[in-house]
Specification:
Number of strands: 2
Strand content: under 5%
Oligomer: single chain
Strand order of the largest sheet: 1-2
Number of helices: 8
Shape: globular
């Protein structure tokens, strides 16, 4: 058995795309709404936190919703890869955004967080398939553009990030079918 339970030749079934799609739609809306009311902090922390928790519960934890949306179980490797992907997000956020906290540079803190989130989508390829590479590239590119072009208002970048997530979410929830790959 290999890294995180990977078994050579194992066929992965991407059965939870619709759950992921629901999560992306919810978190995309939460990002946009919390950016509208963000003020100096750019993203309203209470709106974001409540939206994140409720959205995560609805799309990942709630057994009724997960059972209804899922086409089957994920492999042990996929479950481990999902945990790994989430676990690397926090060190990525710390490394990328941490140096901006002393100055309370909320724009850079959040853009670096958007970049960390984009990067953390890459290992989700093994859980949900190739669409994760697409969302990783688009979310990361949006963050990098914002980092290097400070003339672009943060709210525009937050709306783009939210819309990218909503777009992928709609695709995954309503149009994507379960697929398999090695």
């Amino acid at each position: 058995m290999g890294f995180l339970g990977y078994q050579k030749g194992e066929i992965r079934e991407y059965n939870d795309k619709r759950c992921c799609g629901l999560w992306f739609i919810i978190i995309g809306v939460v990002i946009i709404v919390s950016a509208i009311f963000g003020g100096e902090q750019k993203i309203h922390p209470i709106i974001f936190t409540v939206g994140f928790i409720v959205g995560f519960y609805l799309s990942v934890i709630n057994k009724k919703v997960v059972t209804k949306l899922s086409y089957g179980k994920s492999s042990k490797f996929q479950n481990n890869m999902a945990i790994f992907s989430i676990a690397i997000l926090f060190p990525l956020m710390f490394v990328l955004a941490g140096s901006f906290f002393p100055m309370q540079n909320w724009r850079m803190i959040l853009l670096m967080t958007f970049l960390a989130v984009g990067i953390h989508f890459i290992p989700f390829y093994f859980v949900h398939g190739i669409s994760m590479i697409g969302i990783a590239i688009l979310c990361s590119a949006n963050a990098v553009i914002g980092i290097f072009l400070p003339i672009i208002p943060f709210i525009v970048l937050a709306f783009i990030d939210g819309l990218i997530k909503i777009g992928f979410g709609i695709y995954l929830l309503f149009f994507s079918k379960p697929t398999k790959s090695r």
